Amino acid sequence: MSLRTNAADGKNHLLDLRDVEGLTMGLNTFGIKTFWHILDYFHTTGKRHWLMTTYIVMYHLIGGTYCLLGFAAVFFIDQEDIPRMAAAIMNPLIATQAIFKCWTFSYSTAEYLKLFVLLKKNFMSCVPPEKKLAVDEVTKKNIGLTNQFVKYAMRWNCFTLSMVSFMPYLRSQAFREFFHLGVGPIVPNKVFENEYPFEWNSSPTYEIIWFYEQICAFLAVVTSSAYQAILLYFVMAIVGHLKVLGFVMGNMKATDFTSDSNETMDETAKAKSYKQLVLCIRDHGKINEAGDLLAERYNTFLTFHIGIAIVVGIIAIFNCTVATELADKIKFGIMCVYGLLEVAIYCFCGQLLENACDDVLRQVYSCEWERMDPKFRKAAQLMMVRANSPICLRAGRLYRVNLETLEAIQQLVYTSLTMLTSMVQ
Predict the structure, then answer these.
(1) pLDDT one-digit tens code per residue, 120-175
(2) Where is the chain membrane-spanning (predicted)?
(3) Which one of 169, 185, 256, 292 is most buried, counting C-beta atoms within 10 A?
(4) Backbone phi, then psi, for 188, in 5-degree steps?
């Protein structure tokens, strides 16, 4: 992302430094700076940067080949070997998930960039001048929470995916002998558990597979981290705007429009209060419109992603319970944590949006509506009706992605795991 101001070169940049004051957004990292610059280039020119084009082509060629080889290898496995069959399916599914992330963002970049207006500080216009300092404190707290949320989510995401690249060392013969975890020879290790429909564990095929899977792991880390970070920023931006709106509404007092607390509101004061409420309603409509666009843009992705994550979680837990090698247990445990943690983050984001909408509803009711005129009360009632239909992320356009959904997913994983375990036994 360019850190130049819009006036510096006469171009309308995606964001500038003043727009994201307080948001770290990884701008102190060279790789993330390059990522934002690529998005800004697309925004200002309408064309894909050569790095974006190279990335898309590489990801589809490498990731697509990985998926095809992985799914093809399933037909060469003994169908009665359920743990091996399940493990062979797991990694191609994760690769398909990552390719879908790349595909949805790459071919809908212009639509996604429309949502970046949410990150701008001047998104809302309903803040009265006398409450600007108090509102700035609300905004700063939300920005601080956003920075922490994104930082730890990205670190954990990178950690779990990077750990996969180190798994061959845990399964190596030297490691087993040093820690007395087993005896006997072990076949050469792959980075992933992916099977191949050809003989792969002999030189030089083994070295080629190793290098190939390392590239796949790197692309998965980049894609997953970038896509997840963008969603987190959007969600937290909407939450921040809703908090500001709720603060303005909850602190709307009759004394804001009269000079004396005991003075009855005259027609001028009533007109001012109604005008302020209209500004709040308009901003509420802007927030809801942006929230609906966000939910629409991520609906297909969340549907596909959560569905695959459930399957991967079931397979990972199942193989973790039946594995005999400690290294294999660790590997499947990491994959389980990675898959279900991503789902948990998305469900937590959805819950944050719903909670913020509910807070607006309560704050509207908390304003001194009883001292306002009937016109104000009717307009506030309409705002409450709209706030009663919260912004929510959805999967399949039917199911809300929130903590209740996360609980249902956990129950489904447990039930499926019990069924698979009984089949093996």
Answers:
(1) 878 888 888 888 888 888 888 988 888 888 888 888 777 777 776 666 666 666 66
(2) 56-77, 215-239, 301-320
(3) 256
(4) -55, 145
Average pLDDT estimate for 32-47: 85
Write down the mean pLDDT value for the chain: 81
Cα separation, 76 vs 292, in Å, equals 46
Give DSSP secondary structure letters for 337-376. HHHHHHHHHHHHHHHHHHHHHHHHHHHHHHS-GGGS-HHH
Say which DSSP state 183 is in.
Answer: -
Q: What is the DSSP letter of 174?
A: H
Beta carbons within 8 Å of 148's beta carbon, 6+ residues apart:
none
Query: At how many degrees (to 10) do helices 205-250 and 326-366 cross?
Result: 20
What are the start-end ranges of the H helices in 108-204?
A: 109-113, 132-170, 173-178
- Tokens 């990985």 belong to 66
With beta carbons less than 8 A apart as the criterion, state whether 21 and 75 touch.
Answer: no
Backbone phi, then psi, for 111, in 5-degree steps? -65, -40
Residues whose CB falls within 8 Å of the CB of residue 231, separated by 6 or more in sequence, listed in order = 298, 346, 349
Q: 125 by DSSP, 3-state: which?
A: coil
1 pLDDT exceeds 60? no
Sign of CA dihedral 39, 51, 24, 341: positive
How large is the average pLDDT for residues 8-26?
73
* Residue among 216, 173, 177 nearest 193 (CA): 216
CB 244 within 8 A of CB 138: yes
Alpha carbon 344 to chain centroid distance? 10
How far is residue 18's CA from residue 27's CA, in Å, rounded to a whole number? Answer: 13
* Beta strands at 399-400 and 394-395: parallel, antiparallel or unpaired: antiparallel
